[in-house]
Every structure is written in C-alpha cells, then in structure tokens.
User: Fold these one by one.
Assistant:
Number 1:
Amino acid sequence: MATERTLSIIKPDATRRNITGKIIDKLESAGLRVIAQKRQHWSRDQAEAFYAVHKERPFYNDLVAFMTSGPVVVQVLEGDGAVAKNREVMGATNPADADAGTIRAEFAENIEANSVHGSDSAENAAIEIGMCFSENEIVG
Ligand code: CMP
C-alpha cells in the first residue's frame, strides 16, 4: 500500500483529561508515525474555517464551541494507507458504535466530544494538512 499522510486532531475533551499520550500510543502502535505535531488553542475563526464543510449541519455551532473550549493537539501522521488506518484506529464517530480497542471506544465521551478527528480521504487530508501546517513544520 502507498505511503500516505493524514491530519489528526486530539480534541479538547482529551487534552482536558491529560490522555494525549495514551492516544498517541494507539496511533504509533498501529504503525502510524507522528511527523508533525503542535498544541494550540483554536480561535472561533480557526474552528469555523476547519469545519466549514459542516456549516449547514445542526451540530455545527456546538462543534465550534467545543473545539474552542480548550487546547487541541494537531498532528500529521504518515504510514502505509494512513488515512484508512487512522480511521480504523479512531473507530466510529459515535463512541457507542465504535469497535472495542479503538480510540473512541476507549476514550470518547460522546458523539461530539469524541477525542480525535481524522481526515476522511487523501484529498481532504492534503487540504486539512495545508490548513494546519506549513511545509517546514513537517519532518518525515
Ligand atoms: P469529526 O470526525 O471531527 O467530524 C465532525 C465532528 O462533529 C465529529 O467528529 C464530532 O466531533 C462532531 N459531531 C457532533 N455531532 C455529530 C453528529 N451527529 N454527526 C457527526 N459528527 C458530529
């Protein structure tokens, strides 16, 4: 399978509970490499821009409020089939539907405070990585 890059975000519910290391361990144990990482506190503008694709969804305003409620850790992950692999390790969006052993099954609080975000396609990964990192911050 081809080497890919994907964007990962460890969300405010996870930074609040000080479990970023446990989440990174799951990612690395699945064979993903963290090739860029920074901790940020997003402004409303940043969160709105990142989730603009969900603008018309009923959960959009609450999602923006949640994503600005505390620090996030944004990451670029690299590995064979990284987009799909990361989504497998994260588990379903709703932790109630997530397979045992996945990040969301183990750590997510609910469908909104679901601990992690991962790009849903290679195309969106490139867009999302470009929104969060400059080239010189990514060290493969
Ligand atoms: P994420 O993978 O970051 O993509 C959109 C986010 O919106 C999702 O994870 C959740 O944090 C949040 N969200 C809240 N409610 C819903 C919902 N009903 N369906 C999908 N995503 C939701």
Number 2:
Amino acid sequence: MSLTGEILVLSGPNLDLLGERDPALYGTQTLAQVIERVGARAARYGLSTRHLQSNAESDLIVAVHEARQASVAIIVNAGALTHTSWALTDALELFAGVKVEVHLSNPAAREPFRHLSTLARVVDGTVAGFGALGYELAVDAVASLLGAAGGSARLD
Ligand code: DQA
C-alpha cells in the first residue's frame, strides 16, 4: 500500500531530554531513536517525515503554519504545552490534514493538571500511555485516515 506526502512530527518542550528524563515514565530511548522509528514506520506507507523539536511555543506554531502547505499530516507531542497552549491549539485547528496527538505516558492517569489537553478538541485522535510504540501507532492511524480520505491504504 502506498500513500504520498509528508508527516510533520512535532515535539514540544523537554522532549529533547528523552532517554535521561524520568526513564521510568518516558522510557530509555532518546528522541532521535523515537523519531527514527517513526520514519521507518512511515516509509512502509510511502510517507516521508520531518521532525521539529522546540522548547519554544512560537517555533511549534510557525511549523504548523508551514505544514499547511507542506504536509499531509501532523503527529504532535506538545509536552506540557498540551495542557496550556490555546495558541498551538488554534494553529492546529487551521491545519486541514490529519492530526494525531501522542503522549509517551498516560496523562489521564497522572496529576490533575495533565488531565486537560487543549489540543484534544482539534485533533483526530490521541495515542497515550504506550511509550515510543505510541508514535508508531500514530503513524498507522495517519495512514489509515489518509487512506480513508481517498487513498488505497485502508488498514481494516
Ligand atoms: C508528555 C506528557 C506531558 O504531561 C508532559 O508535560 C510531557 C510529556 C508525554 O509524552 O507523556 O512533557 O507529553
């Protein structure tokens, strides 16, 4: 099965420290290793990936704006901005392609301030609690939704 286009993978604040940041919660893989897995998974569907990690909200917003022309889908782990950033949420709302929110941990099972995702109202769905595997599941979801939107890559 083959699709075409680019998935923008966005990583928010502190995800650059994956591997050393609370491994019991976030795993031992570095962000580079996680992103490599995403690229390999996407390639199975003929999709390319571009990754941006930033600790600055504005960088992530600009990347979403650019994706409106460049990308067919966005996979986003916004880190703690998930719980606070209506600006990133507004930007994502303006992106017409497929949007999947990912979390390594399961925020719903953690502190109350993590229970709200501002992004949830504008994404197609969320994968949380499966560690790095969640990113690959997100790619599968993207491929399925892109297939459903007119391609030939339905997974079901
Ligand atoms: C996270 C969950 C957030 O609550 C936290 O602030 C992060 C990582 C996750 O992947 O589990 O930075 O998005």
